[in-house]
Amino acid sequence: MTIRALSDVSGASNGAIYNAFGSRDGLLASVWAREATRFLEFQRDIADSTLTASGPTEAIVAAALAPATYAERDEFGAQLLLAVTLDDLRTPDLAESQRDQLAGLRRTLPSLLTVLAVEQWGREDATALTLMKYCVVDLPGALLLG
User: Fold this and answer.
1) How far apart are the C-alpha atoms of 121 and 54, rounded to whole Å?
2) Residue 76: which H helix or E strand, with range?
3) How far apart are CA 21 and CA 54, in angstroms?
4) CA of 31: how far to CAs of 24, 35, 51, in Å?
5) pTM for this entry
6) Looking at the predicted structure, is the pLDDT value of residue 146 above 70?
């Protein structure tokens, strides 16, 4: 994708796009961050409501199934989140505000993992959080990409 192609399709000028996002990388980071925020809110809401209704084990399962459920609701958003990682987005072309936004997203998921680990095992040590990450992030992502 080029800024020129986006400009042609959207009707916005190249200058307006560059002014809003700074660069093509900035545009991708902003779109990805918006989608990641939506997904993390979706996942958190599902986990919280399931935790309240059914307990920690079911909440972990619900959080693990959230990417597939989200993909059913927003196929293109889910594809973007699976195809691009935070590390892919951190380029020298990003504005400081975009870097801060991505860093904030990196801190959001561990809070859910911590809640689930404490509810399930009464622990929030590195081992518990790593295991929860495998269950809720790594395994579901690998299955969706596989």
Assistant:
1) 16
2) helix 75-83
3) 43
4) 11, 6, 30
5) 0.85
6) no
